[in-house]
From TrEMBL:
Gene3D superfamilies: Homeodomain-like, Tetracycline Repressor, domain 2. Residues 32-51 bind DNA. Keywords: DNA-binding, Repressor, Transcription, Transcription regulation. This is TetR/AcrR family transcriptional regulator. It comes from Actinokineospora xionganensis. The keyword Metal-binding does not apply. Residues 9-69 form the HTH tetR-type domain. The lineage of its organism: Bacteria, Bacillati, Actinomycetota, Actinomycetes, Pseudonocardiales.
C-alpha cells in the first residue's frame, strides 16, 4: 500500500510524490494512471493539466532529482576555501544524504532510467555524466597535487563509489540504526580514505 500523499502540497507536487512512491514500491510498468491520481487525491483531468502521460511523470522525477543534486554539488565544488579532500567529502556526504531524504525519487532514478523516452534518457545520461566528470576532475586534481594517491584511475574511483550509492534503496531503512547523516559521513569517509596517500 502506497503512503498517503500530503494533502497540503501543490497539485503538481502531490502527483509527483504519489507517482514516485508508487514507482518505487511497485515499479513503473505495474503502476497505472488511475492509481497515481487516487493516491494523489486528484482527478485525471488534474493530472493531465500538468503531465501528458505517465512517461512525463517519470521524466519529471528524474529531472528534479538530478537538478537538485547537481546544483548542490556545484556549490560545494566551487568552494575555494575548502581543500579538495574537504570538498570531495562534503559532496559525497551530501549526495548520500539527499538520496536518502528523497529515497523514492532516488530508487526511481537508479532503477528506471532505461524506461525514459530515448531523447530524455540521452539528456539525463549526459547530465549525470557531467556530474560524475566534475567529481572525477576533483580526484584527478588531487592526484596531480599529491593530495590523493595516484595509482588508481580517477574515473574508476568515482564509478566504484557511485555503484555503492546506487544500491542504497535495497538496504537503507529510515528506522534502522544509522541516520542519513551517519550513512553520508561513512560513505564520504570511505571515499576520501581510499584516496589518502599511502604515507598518511
Amino acid at each position: 500500500m502506497a503512503r498517503v500523499t500530503p494533502a497540503d502540497l501543490p497539485v503538481r507536487d502531490r502527483l509527483l510524490h504519489a507517482a514516485s512512491t508508487l514507482f518505487a514500491e511497485r515499479g513503473f510498468a505495474e503502476t497505472s494512471i488511475r492509481e497515481i491520481v487516487e493516491a494523489a487525491g486528484v482527478t485525471k483531468g488534474g493530472l493531465y493539466h500538468y503531465f501528458d502521460s505517465k512517461d512525463a511523470l517519470l521524466s519529471a522525477i528524474h529531472d528534479r532529482m538530478l537538478t537538485m543534486q547537481i546544483a548542490r554539488m556545484n556549490t560545494i565544488a566551487d568552494a575555494t576555501d575548502l581543500s579538495l579532500t574537504e570538498r570531495l567529502h562534503a559532496i559525497f556526504a551530501d549526495v548520500v544524504e539527499t538520496s536518502i531524504a528523497n529515497l523514492d525519487d532516488a530508487m526511481v532514478f537508479f532503477q528506471s532510467m532505461h524506461l525514459l523516452a530515448p531523447e530524455h534518457q540521452a539528456r539525463v545520461r549526459a547530465e549525470r555524466r557531467r556530474y560524475h566528470e566534475r567529481l572525477r576532475d576533483l580526484v584527478a586534481e588531487g592526484q596531480q597535487t599529491g593530495e590523493f594517491r595516484d595509482d588508481i584511475p580517477a574515473a574508476l574511483v568515482i564509478h566504484y563509489h557511485f555503484g555503492a550509492l546506487h544500491r542504497l534503496g535495497t538496504w537503507y531503512r529510515p528506522d534502522g540504526r544509522l541516520t542519513a547523516e551517519q550513512v553520508g559521513e561513512h560513505f564520504a569517509e570511505l571515499l576520501v580514505r581510499s584516496l589518502a596517500p599511502s604515507n598518511t
